[in-house]
Each structure stands twice: as structure tokens, then as C-alpha cells.
Amino acid sequence: MSEPVTCKQHDSVLLITIDNPPVNALSAAVRLGLSKAFAVAEQEPTVKAVVLRCAGRTFIAGADITEFGKPMQPPALPEVLDQIDTFTKPVVAALHGTALGGGFETALTCHYRIAEASARVGLPEVKLGLLPGSGGTQRLPRLIDVKSALDMIVSGRQVAAPEAMALGAIDRIAEGDLTEQAMAYARELVDNSAPLRRCSDMAVNTADIGATFFAEYRTQVAKQQRGLEAPQACIEAIEIATTLPFAEGLKKERELFLERMASSESAALRHVFFAERQAPVVTDLPRDTPKREIRRVGIIGAGTMGSGIAINFLNAGIPVTLLEMKSEALERGIKTIQAYYDDRKAKGRMSEEKANACFARLAGTLDYADFNDVDLAIEAVFENMAVKHEVFAKLDEVCKPGAILATNTSYLDVNQIAAATSRPQDVLGLHFFSPAHVMRLLEVVRADKTADDVLATAMKLLGTIGKVGVVSGVCDGFIGNRMLKGYGREAGILLLEGASPSQIDSTMNRFGMAMGPMAMGDLAGLDIGSRAREERRQRGETVSPTDGAVADRLVEMGRLGQKSGKGYYRYEAGSRKPILDPEVDTVIEQAAKQLGIERRDISEEEILQRLIYPLINEAAKILEEGIAQRPSDIDVVWINGYGFPTYRGGPMHYADSIGLASILTTIKQYQQRYGDTWQAAPLLERLVQEGKRFSDL
Length: 697
Ligand code: T1G
Description:
The chain has 697 residues and is an alpha/beta fold. It has three domains: 5-261, 2-enoyl-CoA Hydratase, Chain A, domain 1 (Alpha-Beta Complex); 297-472, Rossmann fold (3-Layer(aba) Sandwich), CATH 3.40.50; 480-627 and 659-696, Orthogonal Bundle (N-(1-d-carboxylethyl)-l-norvaline Dehydrogenase, domain 2). The chain is built from 28 helices and 17 strands. The strands form three sheets. Strands 12-11-10-13-14-15-16-17 form an eight-stranded mixed beta sheet, with helices on both faces. (2S,3S)-3-hydroxy-2-methylbutanoyl-COA binds next to strand 5 and helix 3. It is found in: Peroxisome. This is 3-hydroxyacyl-CoA dehydrogenase.
């Protein structure tokens, strides 16, 4: 293996280059290489200054996350950075790509920073449940103002070089070749006998920080980032920077960092980081599987879903043809999309020019014949098999050979849909979540006959439109909605047994769910579930009398949820804030009475188990059936599609963290009480017998 750190002297300037693909993470070998390079440079009298740069696509992207949780190989990063800090000749960091985490901390330790205009810097540690652990919380508030440092560290956001320069975090923007400019900068510093600008020597400017500033900031962040500990630890470390000398602050930062590193929050967030990067990898598809080119997308259906899907492609620079049956419906869809861009412009989130260019890529049509040039058609029409069949037969007729035909169905059998065409190999599911331009998740449904290159194209396309995608096999509800069933069922039964909607929701909110099941039902519309149950009854399936008992009664009363101003809760006009409604308590009590269910006090622990354990149990079945490729994919689905708390790592990671044996025991107890809806998944039984966890699969 070639050396990850190399040195080359150009007259009086030593150029140190890190080359550790893909992102120049600070692995043990890189840390050792840097330490040696600076030690030698310190001793070498002909070296008057150093430039630190990276080869490849980016400056250092941070610590090597794959080393976390393992014994630390010396030298530790703080030791290496101490060497750079105390280096007696000017050190210039040359930044390109993204300088993140330990990478930006390294740059902050250098005495001067020059960056390409396109470079970005940031301290994203908070997103991994950490705080910057190598001086970032002590150096940044010394180099720039305290409030901006707080904002950067607590949000973890990336800051573009020009903004970083305005803040004072970067000294120069390179016009032209970065390395040449950095070398010239270093020579200039030597020629001018410029002072060594060490952050460690700088004072923190606390002039505009009031006595209550940190307390207020803490409260505000606690509200915005509910349940998360890392942002609070970041604030604490920065407050320390304003009160303690640099060396002491550094020590405290390290203590806080090690505490965070050992936390379950950080373990979960690191798990999610890798889970999301693994998700698009399809185990049995070779990396070099050919992909089809997607130059134009056709979308059938201009409703909420269709318009949302269209925006994804328009934003990514891909033209869209939007098809509807009636001109009013088409116009409504186009208006929705236009309103989105108007809003982006008005809020300053998108430039006038970009928004206009995106919107200009949209074409509307009432005629299927205009789909003759689309490379991908996505159907987003009413959830009904007969309707889907009609659409796909039509697509089969008009689309060119090789076009990919996708359905956005959230429940229906994609194999059956594919069978409506003469080219099932070109058909797959692209299950977007609503609102489709906001939600990051996409389930890519691989049907029995879906061709490899069709799947590979879809997985690549996800990256293009900024989604995180997971492959699902065909089954009722795919991964996410199939799991949701047990969750919703138990929530409904708990109501009958004695829990109130707000008790259930607040329990789940405290657990960290973005929304409780009752509030979610009100948002989605209670009539949707009612209709689905009615359809099941009509198909001759048995629907348990407790299943949706309360929701069905509410729907009969016209309480459809937010859209009718009342559902499980009451809503005031124009507000989404749920208000308790005693009328609902009466409905619940009456329903329980009719079903002969005696109401009792229900504990928070029981609510959690009754809602979360069915998720875990169903997920085990999904894994065993090969519907999901790996447990971490299920975590990605629930975090990005259903508001499962990221800091618990998703249902599978959460199950591993509390122990599968105790979950299985509890599931068996509920089975005795409630029967076979609580039948344990064979995979769960097997893992417990073998003393394994989901992460061992
Ligand atoms: N360590 C190890 N591997 C990493 C990595 C890292 N820091 N960052 C990325 N990778 C891998 C990633 O898993 C993927 O691998 C490949 O690189 C490309 O990544 C002391 C505590 C840099 C903006 O949090 O934000 O510093 O899947 O697909 O879209 O205080 O990666 O190909 O096998 O994401 O071009 C702080 C995390 C660490 C940065 C590039 N740093 N990385 O995005 O490619 S904590 C971060 C990113 C820290 C100090 C501490 C992005 C990126 P594979 P990618 P990308």
C-alpha cells in the first residue's frame, strides 16, 4: 500500500499531502504519517513553512468512523494537532471539497487557511451523537464569533467557503490552482515574517454574549432537537471555551467527547450513517451492472403524490411530462408545482433563475401518446388494481422499448401490475412517501421479473434525486407499511382497553417518534384505514371487531381527522394543533362496552411494548422472507419514512440494544393474552436460541 502521507519540499516550503481515499479520513496511518512529517519538518532548517493539502476529491472528511468503538491506535488526533499548533513555522491548510469534523479541526489548528471557492467546511460531529473532539469547540469560537461557532457546531451544517471567509474561518479564497496558491501564500507569510496565528493564543470575544445567553440557547435547542443529548454537550463545550483558558477547555472538551462516544445515542447515529450508505447496495447485483439512461420522466397522475414526485426530477434537472385525464386535474397539478417554486423563491431557498429553469422543465399533457419519449414512467394514480392495470396496459402500448415502467403503489402486488404489460422485466415499484418532494425515503420494489439493469438504474437514480432508497420484495405493504399494520392495530386496541389518544401519542412522543399514531391517523385521514378495512371485509377477509373499532365509529360521525376539523382530536380552523375532545372519550367508552372490553389503567411501558414489539416481530418475518435485504435497511425505512427516532437507530438497532431475549419473552406473554397476532417470528426465536442479534445477520 502506498504511504497515505507524503512530503515534498519546494525551495523553503514543505508540501504535505494526505492521500487516503475515498475521503481522506484520519485513520491511524494518516495520523502517524502527519505526526512524523511535522516532526521532521520542525527539525529541518531549510523548511520555513508548511502547506497541508489532500489528494483526491476532498480535504479530510474527519476522523475515520470505522475506527470508532475499537481501541484507539496512537497517536490520537489531539496529540497530532498539538504538534501542528505548536509548530514554530507557518502552516497553511489548503482546502478543497469538504473539510469536515476532525478535518476542519485540523485546518483550524493550522495557522492559516486558503480554500477553493467551492470548498465547504463544517463540524458535523453532532449528527453522529458527538461533539468535535479535537479542539473544534475551543478553537472555532476563538477564531470567529461565539454565536456563529455555536450555530455551526450545534447544527453540524456545512458552510461554503465564501461564507466561512466572511465569518473569519478562512483567510483566503484561491483563484486558480489551489496548491500553487497555497504555496505562494506560505512564501508570502515567510517573506513578511507573518506571525503564527494560533487559535490557542486568541481570546474569545464575549462582548455580545449576555448573562442568560447560553441558558436561553440551551432551552431553544432542547425544543428543536427533542431528546438529543449531543447538541447540549456541544453547547456546554462552547460555554466552557468562554470561561476557561484554552488548555483547560481542551481537556474538558475531551472528557465530554469520550462520554458522548460511549453513549447509546452516538452508537445509534453512527449505525444510521453506515446503514444509509449501505442501503442502495443490492447484494446480488454486481457493481458494474449496466444502467439505462434517464433523460425524461413521465408521471401519470397530477395529484399530491404525482406533483411531489415530479418536483424531485425537475429539481435534479430531469424534464418531466405530467399526464392527467382531465384538464382541470392537470392544471391543478401544474399549479401545485408552480406554487412550490414560488414559495422557494419567496423564502430565498432557491434563486429565481434556478426555480424558473426547474419549472420550465415541466410539460403537461392529456395524451398518453406524449409518453413516447420518456425513459421512465411513474404511475401515481388511485390505489386500485383495475385502474393500475388499465394504466400499465396503456404504458405498454405507448412507451418506447427499454423504458422503465414504475408504480408508486404503497400496498398492491407489483407482480400483478407487471403482468398487465408485455414487458414485466421493465416494471418495478418506486414507493415515494408523502410529501414526495420532502420525504427522503423511497422503497424500490423489486418484482419477480424486474431486470437487473432496471433495478440498478433505479438505485442510481435515487442518488440523483437525493433520496435514500431501500430495496423491498413484493408483499402487502412492502417493508414500512407492512410493519405499520401491527403498530396501528395495537394502538386501536389500547384505546379500547383504557388508554386515551393523548396518552398513547405522548408516550410515543417521549420515546422520540416524530408523531404518535393517533395524531398521524388524523393527519393521514381516518377514512383511509376505514375504507381499507371495508374492502377487506368485502373481499371476504376476516377483520377482527377490535381492529379499527374506534376509528370506524369516528368516521361514521364524520370525524375524518384534520381535514374535517376533528378526528381523534379536535382542530381549530387553520391550525394543526390537536385539542383533546371529551366526545372522543365517550365514543371510545361506548365502543369498549359494546365489545365487552373492560377498561383499565395502562402503563407507559405497556404502550411502548404493544406498539414497538409488533414492529420488531414483523420485521423479523420480513427479513426471513427475504423481503428486506438486511436489518439496517429496515432501520433506514423507519427513520426516514415513519419518524422513528434517529437516536435509537431504528427498530432493529433498538431491538438489539434492549436485547432480543427479553423482547421474545414479552411477545410470548402477549400471545397468551391476545392470541396469534402475537405469534413470535421464527427468526426471532432462532436468534435468541443462538444468542445472536439482528446486527449479526
Ligand atoms: N470515516 C470513514 N469512512 C467515511 C467517512 C469517515 N469520516 N466519511 C465517509 N466515509 C466513507 C463512506 O462510508 C463511503 O464509503 C465513502 O466514504 C463515500 O462517502 C475528531 C470525532 C465526506 C461529505 O461526519 O459527510 O471527525 O460506502 O458515500 O456523498 O471531532 O461522506 O463507499 O464504502 O457519503 O461524496 C466527522 C461524514 C467524523 C463526515 C462525502 N465527519 N462523511 O459524501 O460520499 S467525526 C463526518 C460525509 C470526527 C473529530 C471527530 C460524507 C462526505 P462506501 P459518501 P459523498
